[in-house]
Amino acid sequence: MCLDERRKEKTRAKTRPRQAKPPGLGTGYAGEDFAPVYDYYAVQPPSIPPPENRNQQQQRDEQLRHYFSGLALILEGSSNHPGLLNLMRMSLLGHVMEELLRNDSISDCSERAALYAAFLTALEAIALNPRLVEFYTSPRDEIECTDGLERIISAHGQLVKKKDCSSSQRHLAGTAPPLLELMENLCKQAETFYKTMTNVSVNAADANVVNSINLCKSIIAVRKLLESTARQTGCSNSVSALQQVDESDAYRLACADLAYDEFPQSINVPYYFTTMAQSLKAINPRRTITLAKELSTMATSLPPGIFVRNIPNRPDCIKALIAGPEGTPYYGGLFEFDIFAPDNYPAVPPKVQVITTANGKVRFNPNLYAYHLILIVLTIEMERSACR
Predict the structure, then answer these.
(1) What is 247-356's CATH number?
(2) pLDDT tens per residue across span 177-200
(3) Which of 178, 141, 149, 156 is nearest to 83 (CA)?
(4) Taking 70 as the threshold, does the pLDDT of residue 290 lie above it?
(5) Strand pairing of 143-146 and 260-262?
(6) pLDDT tens, 150-186?
């Protein structure tokens, strides 16, 4: 099933029409000298699957749910089988698990709660078997094609890896990261969502919210179990730390560790919208739920050079720091923003105030200000005058 989907995706990629780059907007992006920020960060617009694909996704999720439920039963009855680890590593099980662990949306996970419940049950069964530690702590070879385990076991089939890499070349193409490493990212999202939601009274009738909270608790618990088994058997998830990475990768990894967090309770953070935030009489649960989902996504999905912090117990009070990307007029600069989500957010947009202005003495891109349209017109007229 996975190989068929991979072939279909390659076919779709070849037939998909190439989209022209949209022109840059705002001061500093006139012409082709400077690429838009989303090109620099390799961020692509989201694509919404057509309705028929959603039905296919539901059918696939149902299949995978049965697979994982069956896997959990098999592992419970075959815990001491010496060949089980090799069978699992030859299969496409790791590929499917990687796909689910790479999901960067707790909201999407909760909407697929039945699938993720079975998936976490299977992971728990794997964690309870010390013989299977290497399955989730070691890098995995990418599989190009396979005749299936049944034919391989009977010596009538073969498994072709994408690229055979020695142990000293695990950082090259052809290997996938350990599942435990991917589990850490998903767990970071779960911890962010769960921490934010602890201050909100949840309506028990809202199944989606309850599913999200229970799912986050399960993700955190399974990750602890995986790490505990790995420590007890002497297999730590330190493969990534030993890999040789270039400067750009090192920067990206460092940014990922620092991308999102709460400010420490001991720090008194100056905040532009303090008065507005203090004027709120009560907490809007729906707003907090929306913010919890968005912050959990940002915990692992922010592009390099963007850092977000929120005031403790106030997910609606956010500060952001953006490092100017290379190849733009803002390169080398650090730009601070204060962001506030009003009581009726997301029905209305958040309020944003640029802080990096040297106490109001410096102005940057006119799109950052309320009267940006007038400034754009003035800027264009000044450029035309200079050309004359």
Answers:
(1) 3.10.110.10
(2) 889 988 888 899 999 999 888 766
(3) 149
(4) yes
(5) unpaired
(6) 777 777 777 787 765 444 444 445 578 889 988 888 8
Per-residue burial over 45-83, b if 16 or more Cβ lie within 10 Å, else e, is eeeeeeeeeeeeeeeebeebbebbbebbeebeeeeeeee
**Six token digits for residue 238:** 């330190």
**Side chain identity, residue 146:** T
Distance CA 60, CA 19 (A): 29
Q: Where are the domains of the chain?
A: 57-139+177-242, 247-356
Q: How do beta strands 260-262 and 306-311 pair?
A: parallel
In terms of Cα–Cα distance, which of 319, 293, 322 is closest to 306? 322
Q: Which two tokens stand for residue 270?
A: 């100056």
Contact between 117 and 218 (Cβ < 8 Å): yes
